[in-house]
Amino acid sequence: MPVYFTNLGLLDAYGRRSVKRFKQNAADYATALTQAADLIVDFAAISLMRVEKYTVGQEIAPSDSVGSGANKDEGLTFAMDLGDGKRGVLKIPGPDKSVVNTDGTVDLTDGLVTALMANFTGPGPWTISDLEQPIAVISGKLDS
User: How far apart are CA 31 and CA 11, in angstroms?
Assistant: First the structure.
């Protein structure tokens, strides 16, 4: 049976937001949506927090392995051009250091970098903070 999850976006009386994640077993996505709607009703009855939004998704484990030297405490930070003089940031944890120059900057022409950035820039399907669509990558650097 597939494993689904429901994330509840919560708001308290002081304007603070949090997320509560629940795993669920469901036969299919339609059932998972129905279960999530039922959970929200029951959750709202016992919690004073406001459910602002929720997401339902299927948990899928890709067949990938941990790379040698992978470190969640290291990352790449990309400065993104959002247009109209606005900038955004995209962070990637545990980077492959082959894309990092000796001065700590990211080689923006490296094929691994351009492939990933194509997902976020131009007509790519992914957005960064606040659903913003970057138009270009300005720079990248290694965070350590």
Answer: 26
Helix (H) or strand (E) holding 28: none
Q: What is the pLDDT along the chain (144 residues), one digit of tens a residue?
A: 788 999 999 999 999 999 999 999 899 999 999 999 999 999 999 999 999 999 999 988 888 888 888 888 899 999 999 999 999 999 999 999 999 999 999 999 999 999 999 999 977 788 887 778 899 999 999 997
Structure tokens at 54: 């929720």
Alpha helices in the chain (DSSP H): 29-46, 111-117
Rounded Cα gap, residues 81 and 35, in angstroms: 40
Report residue 134 as tokens. 């970057």
Distance separating alpha carbons of residues 110 and 106, to the nearest angstrom: 9
Buried b (16+ CB within 10 A) or exposed e, 24-35: bebeeeeebeeb
Nearest-angstrom CA–CA distance, 43 and 38: 9
Q: Under a CB-based contact definition with an 8 Å cutoff, are residues 107 and 99 in contact?
A: yes
Phi first, then psi: what are they for 59, rounded to 5°? -85, 120
What does R_g of the chain's alpha carbons equal in angstroms?
19
